[in-house]
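Sample entry (281 residues):
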Amino acid sequence: MFATSLIVFRETLEAALFVGIVAASTQGVLHRSRWLSLGVLAGVVGSLVVAAGMGQISAWADGIGQDLLNVGIIGAALVMLTWHCVWMSAHAKDMVQDAKQLAHQAAAPNGSLLALAIAVALAVLREGAETVLFVAGFLSGSTQSLSSVFLSVALGLLSGSLVGVVIYFGLARIKAQHLFAVTNSLILLLIGSLASQLGKNLIQSGLVSQGSEPLWSTQSWLSNDSAFGVFLHALAGYDANPAALQVLLYVGSIALVWCATHYMTQKQTMAAQSTPVVSKI
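Predicted structure, serialized as tokens:
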């Protein structure tokens, strides 16, 4: 029972942290709750559909269909989250100013919110499909009662979701002028985590062979299965035995997105300084 709850907790935690950080980064944005809710709902439905068809999916491409699907899902989520992060860097100052005015709400273009909803849906889909497949496999070979298994799953879902809620409300208490800097930093970690997982799936699928050897091992200090290791994996993509490709993609993606956001911020600052000030008479 404990093992089932722990695995469900791990999968739920990854999705919950993702959604919590993204929700905090768009605090005050008009209609953001609607878009995020649609993303979560689409992810849940999609995970059930994917889990139901996983037998056929796994048979694709000489048996690596599941790995290819994971590569596609992670890659798409990475693109959407990167787009949102870059967009936020260009509009953060305007959103902070709007957030300070109680009569107004910051408004984001539908394109940015759509990208965010897609990223959330893909994160929930990936973790949800893995959870459904695990529970289904456990039920088929378990002697435990159905009620006991469902109780284990419920405990895992609840505890993982609660951590995500705590993260969200903790971020929500940060002052508006600092919120976007904090959440953008966390989103950068999520981007690095997705990039690392993309590298891992490319290696597992056999699509990439170079850089598959582990660069180091911290398993004896902090294992992937430890409580803190699970949390760090969900938040920042921690891996006790990372392959060279994972480390390269992790560092490269963070550096690339940081440079893009820094460029957009500088561009916005220069545009604001060059805009003539019209005095009101």
